[in-house]
Structures are given as structure tokens and as C-alpha cells.
Amino acid sequence: MNTPALKSATSIEAHKKNLTETEASAEYGMSVYWYRRSRWAGDGPRFIKLGGAILYPRTELDSFFDARLVKSTSESSTRKPSATGRA
User: Fold this and answer.
1) Which residue of 32, 46, 60, 84 has the fewest CB atoms within a 10 Å radius of its CB?
2) By three-state DSSP, how is residue 18 classified?
3) C-alpha distances in angstroms, 70 versus 27, 60, 66?
4) Model pTM?
5) What pLDDT, in 10s, does the model give residues 30-47?
């Protein structure tokens, strides 16, 4: 039975603004270890640190992964221009 109150609560949870590393891992397919390593290295998505809690804004995760979309394996999602202006 799917009551309106239950359906509404489920919708709110599904559109949660900030995710824990475990929730982000489940939703975006990267391991919890990857999130921890990327925080340490500074090359992952931006995050919020509140005391000991780490939260990832959904908008930051979407932006981070969208910026790495490529059309083929010959493309590099992390290319940076060289001094000559070529990647």
C-alpha cells in the first residue's frame, strides 16, 4: 500500500540535498574508499565537513561527474592545456 504520506517521505529522501560518502557511493557507483582517497588527495568532488561528518552536496557530485563525460576512449576527461596551448 502506497499512501500519499509514505510516497511524499520517499520522494523527499530520494531528493536529499547532501549525501554521506556511503550514500554517494551507492548512488554514483564509486567506492567509499575512492571518496576517502579523493578527499585526501584533493582531486575529488567538493564536500562539506561539519565536525567529523562529511557530506557531499548532490549538485557538487553531479558537476564533478558531468565534467568528466567523454565520447570516446581517445578523449581524456582530465586534459589540461600545455604551455603551447595543446593538451
Assistant:
1) 84
2) strand
3) 20, 19, 9
4) 0.68
5) 999 999 999 999 999 999
